[in-house]
Amino acid sequence: MLTRTLAALGTAALLVATLFSGSAGAADTPEVAEALPVTGAQVPGTTDDAFSAAAAALPFNFDFEMCCSLDSRQFTPPGRQNRGKACVTLRGTKSDDPKWKGKIVKVIMWDEDGIDGKKGPTVDFKLDGTYYKYCWTGLTVAHPHHFEIQKPWGPAQLWGDGKATGS
């Protein structure tokens, strides 16, 4: 009886480790990361209104005007060579808060398959008129995703633009 109980516990432990292996990896990912400045040819080009229409694929450009929080359009991360990588490049261009420069917005990547699941770290993007970029990797290729921009300071409006890409 004791042998069967120990065997059952071992099987249960293996099952839990297998089912929740993605959760253990998430604990190794830093909770907050920082986007890096972008220079030269990586700067996004002409923008369009990314938040008004759905998109099935990357890349897309966007403009934003927000107070507190804003979700991007839905997209599916590309597969093959890029293996579930999605990058966000953005900058703040103005605010009705005269002290907006030097503050941050936070960007969170979400997997929309079923119940939204946060993917990777929350990333801080500095606001100083410069483009900053961060890439999330290991996203599920066949699932729809979106990113959320959060402004954790004051009730002021913030304007900006950017681009979502697969690299």
Name the average pLDDT.
79
Per DSSP, the total helix count is 2
Neighbour order of strands in the largest sheet: 1-7-6-9-4
What percent of residues are in strands?
Answer: 35-45%
Low-confidence stretches: 1-29, 46-55
- How helical, in percent, are the residues? 10-25%
Distinctive features:
single chain; 167 residues; alpha+beta; five-stranded antiparallel β-sheet; 2 helices; 10 strands; 37% strand; globular; disordered N terminus
List the helices and strands and how they pair.
Blueprint: H1 2-19, H2 21-28, E1 32-34, E2 36-37, E3 60-66, E4 69-71, E5 86-95, E6 104-111, E7 117-126, E8 132-136, E9 145-150, E10 158-165
Parallel strand pairs: 1-7
Antiparallel strand pairs: 2-8, 3-10, 4-9, 5-8, 5-10, 6-7, 6-9
Brief summary:
This protein has helices at residues 2-19, 21-28, and strands spanning 32-34, 36-37, 60-66, 69-71, 86-95, 104-111, 117-126, 132-136, 145-150, 158-165. The chain is of the alpha+beta class. The chain has a five-stranded mixed β-sheet with strand order 1-7-6-9-4, with no helix packed on it. It has a five-stranded antiparallel β-sheet with strand order 2-8-5-10-3, with no helix packed on it.
